[in-house]
Design brief:
alpha+beta, Creatine Amidinohydrolase, Chain A, domain 1, Creatine Amidinohydrolase, 2 domains, six-stranded mixed β-sheet, four-stranded mixed β-sheet, 9 helices, elongated
């Protein structure tokens, strides 16, 4: 039956890679496939390899067999079946539903966008996320995010246990008779996440000056008496939702400057967490953290080609993507009940080291609900 909607919303991607497509379908498909929404009705078009599984497991209202649809499209468009590709199928379904416009997500493949334009269709690019409801997490989603953060915490605990068991030999850390490197500790962390059913990619284990570049994953031997940032953001295999937690450790003895830095970051995080509430802007939360740093004399400035101080935003949304809406930054808008955000202020000075502490909360009308759990002890003798 044709819908009366004048707009057809089309996605073409792998739901392994597209958070919007997985959100719509609820099923992982490794290869790109066509899915569209007309009104409130969603339809997936998959080949015979995926048909049975997607029909049984997906949330779509309808699942069509690609091979059968190709025959119908070839007849309707009066072209050879071998010429029916993704763009032709999109044209066919737009025609079938009398759509006056086609809406696509920001990451829609340019090649098919160009073909649809060439065919004379009226195109528009939708907002990001393509499904705004993704920003407001349900209780089920919040539980999935808790599971993701439980995996993050397991990885961080594994790192802490390894650092605790390590010994200081000169300017190196030794663990089980071998030099402890960022790479080796990253493997230990990732294995702990995997034991919790989550896959971690690009886990950050960055010590000393490396930790002053917030997205440097870390490499080479870890050293005693230096701050080590451990940032773990795995994806739970079953649900697709992520965890995202950061703790900073030091093996050995911290100096006064390092202790002051860590105390400032933890205080900034507490101030930011205390300001989170539905109706409060992300900008207000960011300023709460920044005010602590300003009061304690930590300046953010450019030095040569780099920057020091508080050089990133206070947080971001977390869900099917590690970084998603809303933002918690200087220009961020109001937070709403159900938003899930990270709170992760940090300070970075090469002469002292880098420190970042990150937790995840769900915004409520009264404040926030913590979705991550891990202690804040950081100095390991």
């Amino acid at each position: 039956m044709k819908s009366k909607s004048s707009v057809i919303r089309i996605l073409y991607a792998s739901s392994e890679q597209s958070a919007d497509l997985y959100y719509l379908t609820g099923v992982f498909v490794p290869d790109p496939f066509l899915c569209f929404v007309v009104g409130r009705r969603s339809t997936a078009v998959v080949n015979r390899l995926e048909y049975g599984r997607v029909k049984a497991q997906s949330q779509c209202d309808e699942v069509l067999l690609l091979e059968a649809v190709q025959v119908e499209a070839a007849e309707a468009l009066q072209i050879d079946r071998s010429s029916v590709g993704p763009a032709e199928l999109m044209r066919y379904f737009a025609q079938q539903h009398d759509a006056q416009a086609v809406e696509v997500p920001e990451l829609f493949p340019a090649v098919y966008y160009a073909k649809l334009l060439e065919a004379g269709l009226q195109l528009r690019v939708g907002a990001d996320p393509f499904f705004p409801a993704r920003e407001i997490k349900t209780d089920v989603e919040a539980k999935a995010l808790q599971q993701g953060n439980a995996a993050s915490a397991a990885g961080i605990r594994a790192a802490e246990a390894t650092l605790r068991a390590a010994t200081i030999v000169g300017n190196r850390l030794k663990f089980e008779g071998r030099t402890l490197t960022s790479e080796r500790l990253r493997i230990i962390i990732d294995q702990a996440c995997l034991a919790k059913g989550a896959v971690a990619h690009n886990t950050i284990v960055a010590g000393g000056k490396q930790g002053c570049d917030p997205h440097e994953v870390g490499h080479g031997p870890l050293k005693p008496h230096e701050l080590i940032i451990v940032d773990v953001f795995p994806r739970v295999q079953k649900t697709g939702y992520h965890g995202d937690m950061t703790r900073t450790f030091l093996k050995g003895r911290a100096n006064d400057a390092q202790r002051a830095l860590v105390d400032a970051v933890r205080s900034a995080q507490q101030a930011a967490l205390a300001s989170v509430k539905a109706g409060v802007s992300g900008a207000t939360v960011h300023r709460a953290a920044d005010d602590v740093f300003q009061q304690r004399g930590y300046r953010t400035e450019q030095r040569g080609d780099g920057f020091v101080g508080f050089i990133h935003s206070t947080g971001h949304g977390l869900g099917l993507e590690v970084h998603e809406s809303p933002r918690v930054s200087l220009t961020a808008g109001p937070l709403h009940a159900g938003h899930v955000i990270t709170i992760e202020p940090g300070l970075y000075y090469p002469e002292v080291g880098g420190c970042r502490i990150e937790d995840v909360v769900r915004v409520t009308t009264e404040g926030s609900e913590l979705l991550s759990s891990m202690h804040y002890r950081w100095e390991i003798k």
